[in-house]
Amino acid sequence: MEVEGKTKYAEEAFDFDDGRQQKPELDDDGRPKRRGTLLTASAHIITAVIGSGVLSLAWAIAQLGWVVGPAVLVAFSLITWFCSSLLADCYRSPDPVHGKRNYTYGEAVRANLGSVKYRLCALAQYVNLVGVTVGYTITTAISMGAVKRSNCFHRNGHNAACDESNTINMIIFAAIQILLSQLPNFHKLWWLSIVAAVMSVTYSSIGLGLSIAKIAEGGNVRTSLTGVTIGIDVSASEKVWRTFQSLGNIAFAYSYSNVLIEIQDTLRSSPPENQVMKKASFIGVSTTTLFYMLCGILGYAAFGNHAPGNFLTGFGFYDPFWLIDIGNICIAIHLIGAYQVFCQPIYQFFEGWIRNRWPNNTFFTKEHVVSLPVVGDFPFSLFRLIWRTLYVILTALVASIFPFFNDFLGLIGALSFWPLTVYFPVQMYMAQAKIRKFSVTWTWLNILSSACLVVSIVAACGSIQGLVHDVGNYRPFRV
After folding, report:
1. Which strand (E) or helix (H) includes residue 80?
2. Is 109 within 8 Å of 282 (Cβ atoms)?
3. C-beta of residue 297 within 8 angstroms of C-beta of residue 44
4. Do 163 and 329 contact (CB within 8 A), yes or no?
5. CA distance 313 to 306
6. For residue 410, which of 466, 341, 331, 334 has the smallest C-alpha distance?
7. What end-to-end distance do the CA atoms of the chain give, in Å?
8. Helices (H), 158-272
9. Which residues fall within 8 angstroms of residue 414, CB to CB, at 6 or more apart?
């Protein structure tokens, strides 16, 4: 693949009309010259990090309180930044400045840790991707329902019974995703990232502004140094489980390691990519942390110990209803596109594996060109239609059975935080830098990794307990 790519780009460097060689605009790997800078990389990181995870931060701070809550946010940001710095050195291997480029997170793991660790990394990545698509289905359905409820409250008063069915909203969302999933080159829709970035910043800013307005109004809001109070708000066991679950919610808010190598691959070669990426990670993570602190702390100050799990759909805010509607519409638009960003790697992996396994089976390999109005010639595959439709239906079914925002986000954050944010970056760095076993650096890096493993385990336990508890009181597929 690499040789073919170099040949292709080398041919494009010639002007075949007069035989003269044009000025080559290629990088050391034969690919078109990368133009990314510190500014663009920082913007990509902020876009990748700020997302639906911000919606649960007020609830997470409410479980932990004024002291532990902000401290945990800072701790996660420091760990994420530090491990991102280690990962930045693994973009090239074996040398972080002059080595061979690794274009994806998985390639970096394979180059530094071998094929066995690569398979484990791939498993963690795909489990995370599937979990995120289910989580986005839940979040979008809740936001779609919140728009209807907001208008119902506006018409009938805040005490009206304005229940909405998440099942119907999930069916609508799944129908949209089935259509979008048939696009074979969805990744080429470059404007998707711009739309997602604008939407995520918009709804986060709306939530922040509404929190400030609610604080300014005053009112009897009860907060405490330790968060929700045992015996008043929750029982002792609920306090423990909610504390664990809140760690998963915060971990989910900081997950972006999956795309760090891909972001680094956009940077120009000089100055060295790892140096620029470390600065970009610092700018991106610190900017995001400031934004998260504002949303989490002001959200807690606005709602107190009764902060809703999602501060735009939990109806601590009722007015202005049109602004709440805009916020939730932005969430839906963002996640409709983001779902495709996360499911496309799953589609490509499975379809590639199937075609390699049965290369002579025309059902798997053959495509038909269909002429459609407006769209024009469209490549159609019956296999792609069936399997991608089944995947979307499966994620919608799981979301319908477990439509619990905080629990599911906490579980996704717990499952992805330790392996993808901490373990593999630490292991790759130690392998590349040839850190001697039982040295001071080796010891404390392993202590950090082990501590983060414990955090992921307790966060997963808290989220699973929450799911089990909520499922016991829930009737799925209620229309």
Report:
1. helix 57-88
2. no
3. no
4. no
5. 14
6. 466
7. 51
8. 166-180, 191-217, 236-253, 260-264
9. 247, 248, 251, 456, 457, 459, 460, 462, 463
The per-residue b/e assignment along 402-427, b for 16 or more CB within 10 angstroms, e otherwise, is bbbbbbbbbbbbbbbbbbbbbbbbbb
pLDDT in tens, 321-370: 788 888 889 888 888 888 887 888 888 888 888 988 888 888 887 877 77
What pTM was computed for the model? 0.82
Chain centre distance of CA 299: 22
pLDDT of 7 > 50? The answer is no
Q: Tens digit of pLDDT for each residue in 79-123?
A: 999 999 999 999 998 888 888 998 888 899 999 999 999 999 989
The CATH number of 39-352+383-472 is 1.20.1740.10
Task: Compute the residue count for the chain.
Answer: 479
Taking the CA of residue 227 as centre, how many other CA atoms within 13 Å lie in the half-sphere pointing to its CB? 26
Residue written as token pair 């809140």: 246
Q: Helices in 321-361 by DSSP H: which ranges?
A: 321-357
User: Cα separation of 347 and 395, whole Å?
Assistant: 13
Residue 71 token pair: 């401290």
Residue 230 burial (CB count, 10 A):
14
Count other C-beta atoms under 10 Å from residue 476's C-beta. Answer: 13
Strand partners, 370: 378
- Indicate the domain borders of the chain: 39-352+383-472
Q: Is 299 exposed, middle or buried (0-12, 13-18, 19+ CB in 10 A)?
A: buried
∠ Cα 409 413 418 (to 5°):
170
CA distance 24 to 266: 18
Sign of CA dihedral 109, 111, 113, 117: positive
Residue 369, strand partner residues? 379
User: Residue 49: how many CB atoms within 10 A of its CB?
Assistant: 24
What string of DSSP letters covers 289-313? HHHHHHHHHHHHHHHGGG--SSTTT
Who's near 262: CB < 8 A, 6+ residues apart? 103, 104, 105
